[in-house]
Amino acid sequence: MIPFVINIVYFMLSLALLFAFIRLTKGPSLPDRVVALELVASIVVGYVGVHAIDTGVSSLLDVAIVIALTAFLAAIGFARFLERGGRKND
User: Fold this and answer.
1) Beta-carbon-side half-sphere exposure of residue 59 (alpha carbons within 13 Å)
2) Whole-model pTM?
3) How far apart are CA 10 and CA 17, in angstroms?
4) pLDDT digits (tens, 9 = 90+) for 13-36
């Protein structure tokens, strides 16, 4: 039963990743693309977490934490970039 559920979770995460990439490429504005990029990072963390459960390798949870923290810092950087008005043409 557990391998069946894990395969369903992998499928659902793949579908969510596909939709997030579509949103990332067709986002109407930069803030929408930043949100989609953050969603992609969250889905990748989910993949790593499910893979850690599937294989029983608990050190993969450390990898998931590092990915989540890196994505958080990138989101903060994008937010500060957007808050200051974006790219300046000097």
Assistant:
1) 0
2) 0.85
3) 10
4) 999 999 999 999 998 888 888 899
CA atoms within 13 A on the CB side of 76: 6
DSSP 56-71: --TTHHHHHHHHHHHH
Q: Cβ–Cβ contacts within 10 Å for residue 7, how many?
A: 11
- The full length of the chain comes to 90
CA torsion, ordered 74, 77, 82, 88, to nearest 10 deg: -120
Which tens digit of pLDDT belongs to each residue from 39-69? 999 999 999 999 999 999 999 999 999 999 9
Residue written as token pair 């992998």: 10
Q: What is the pLDDT of residue 71?
A: 94
Task: Tell me how far apart the alpha carbons of residues 8 and 64 are, in angstroms, rounded to a whole number.
Answer: 20
